[in-house]
Amino acid sequence: MKRIAAIPLILASLAFPVVTSCSTRANEPHSAPDGCEEVLGSSGIKWVHDHATGDAGETIERSTMSLKESREGYLKQMESWDPEGTHWSSELCTMRKFTSGKNAVLRIEFGPSSTPFNFNTKGSEGTTELVNPDVKLHQVKDHREITHYGIYVKCKMPGTPPHQASTTPLAGVLTDTLTEGTTADARVTYLLRSTRAVVRSLKCENKPVVPVSFPTSKQ
Question: Shortest CA distance to 81 belongs to which of 164, 155, 19, 163?
Fold first, then answer.
């Protein structure tokens, strides 16, 4: 299968069916932590509500998949690992508000990447920053000028050969049109926080180190 490198890599690598759970309202009680709470934490949820566009009294709808559900889906995909395979992602957290006729959303997705960790940056769009040997950040704008904050992590899964971690890394994307007055650094920080939670859940055999923050000048 030909790998796509000429279009935005984060969009290409996660351009497959997204699995989500049912929708809930942000002000309804939850019997257990949902995906948004698990990956963003209580401070991340507060950050979204404090910076959400529109009227502060408007409801923010939330649809999520738990880390446990996401991990089960991830492991199922990796059971018969194919280095040339395509994959689907889990929409771990979506927070949405309809304001002034506009659909504002913050979405966090993770899945096995169809793009290798060491992709050719010359043929790609956007900007790439190597955080450490196991973690890479990628930012790209789509045709609507919306920035997608992406991350690749070498995550070695049980029962796969050593090169699996580089060939099919963990990929994540944070897309945010919901918050206002938010810097790229803040969004990258919450993407890293989410990635740390996913990496802990997956129990990657190579134990990649995902930092709590990473300064970036890209907006």
Answer: 164
- The Cα–Cα gap between 150 and 44 comes to 18
**Shortest CA distance to 39 belongs to which of 93, 105, 107, 97?**
93
**Whole-number Å distance between alpha carbons of 90 and 198:** 11
CA 32 to chain centre: 22
State the Cα–Cα distance between residues 204 and 111, nearest whole angstrom. 13
> What 8-state DSSP symbol labels residue 210?
-
Q: Which two tokens stand for residue 219?
A: 């907006």
Query: How far apart are alpha carbons 25 and 98 in whole angstroms?
Result: 13
Backbone φ/ψ region at 79: left (φ over 0), alpha (ψ -120 to 50), beta: alpha
DSSP state of 31: S
Distance CA 95, CA 114 (A): 26
User: How far is CA 26 from each of CA 19, 93, 166, 187, 206, rounded to the nearest angstrom?
Assistant: 20, 12, 37, 20, 36
What is the pTM assigned to this prediction?
Answer: 0.85
pLDDT tens digits, one per residue of 18-63: 554 444 444 444 445 689 999 999 999 999 999 998 887 788 998 8
Hey, what are 40's tokens? Answer: 């963003």
CB 69 within 8 A of CB 201: no
Convert the pLDDT of each residue in 78-137 to its tens digit.
998 998 888 899 999 999 998 766 789 999 999 999 999 998 765 567 889 999 999 999
